Amino acid sequence: MDIIAAHLSAEDTFEDVLRRVPDGAWDKPSRCPGWTIRDVTGHVVWGRQLVAGLARGEEPRSREGAPGVSSHQCC
């Protein structure tokens, strides 16, 4: 398995899903209690940035969850 190719494919799929979110739906509840679609999206993007930074040898800027939703426990 080519891990990089699998990761890039997952990113493409995630981007495709995000493009299908209708305007006005971003603040609707997600399947994660207390989280909106926007919250979950922010958490995933934050996680990607964290992993990319760690791969470059950078210290995390924050150890909390996604910005603005650090008190939530998702999924």
From TrEMBL:
Question: Which terms are listed as keywords in the entry?
Answer: Isomerase
Q: Which GO terms describe its molecular function?
A: isomerase activity
Which segments constitute the Mycothiol-dependent maleylpyruvate isomerase metal-binding domain?
Answer: 10-62
| SUPFAM superfamilies linked | DinB/YfiT-like putative metalloenzymes (SSF109854)
What domain of life does the UniProt record list for this protein's source? Bacteria
| Alphabetized InterPro entries for the sequence | DinB/YfiT-like, MDMPI_metal-binding
Q: Where in this protein does the record put region Disordered?
A: 56-75
Give a single Pfam family match. Answer: MDMPI_N
Membrane-spanning residues where? Answer: none
Q: Per its record, how is this protein called by name?
A: Maleylpyruvate isomerase N-terminal domain-containing protein
Query: Which organism is the protein's source?
Result: Ammonicoccus fulvus
